[in-house]
Amino acid sequence: MREKILEIASEMFLNLGFKSVTMDDIASEMGISKKTIYQHFDNKTKLVEATTDYVFHFVCTGIDCIRAENKNPIAELFQINTFIKQLLKNEKASPQHQLQKYYPRIYKKLKANQFSIMHECVIENLKTGMELGLYRENIKPEIIGRFYFLGATGIKDQDLFPPDIYSPNDVVDLFLEYHLRGIVTKKGEKELMKYINQIN
Description:
This protein has 200 residues and is an all-alpha fold. It has one domain: Tetracycline Repressor, domain 2. Helices cover 74% and strands 0% of the residues. It has helices spanning 2-16, 23-30, 34-40, 44-67, 73-87, 95-102, 104-131, 141-154, 168-181, 186-199. Helix 5 (73-87) runs antiparallel to helix 9 and helix 9 packs antiparallel against helix 10.
């Protein structure tokens, strides 16, 4: 039951926001009593923390599966990009903004975990791309990795990119293209264009 609560709560929080969804809403959606939820989670804050961990580990597992396929670094980034867009396709609220505003401790912990995992993945991707001649030899992976994290989290800011003006999918796709165009070699650009042409 705990796992099912996490699954439903995660979906509702991502779609409607962490502040907007109540324990009553989750109980109603599941057709169970609120008391059943409290048997597994002491309060809403504990549930929010558990759901952020749940989604984070789900994303990490998905990315690990993609990385295990050992595709070239550009193909890998595009596949991860598609996976993340699919996961968040029904996101209507601004869960990141609500998490930051109403649950700052949980947001800080999540951001630290995201940085740790994402930075490691990006640096490995950059180094492999350099070895294969797809990325320029003179880039600095540690710094580029931080640029990438800053951009990937920054594009979720709905004050900067209101979803009614800027399509979230377009923003995500353009950010990835922007990142790659700054680091690819001529060889890498040819590979990059294959995926851009598939999207357009």
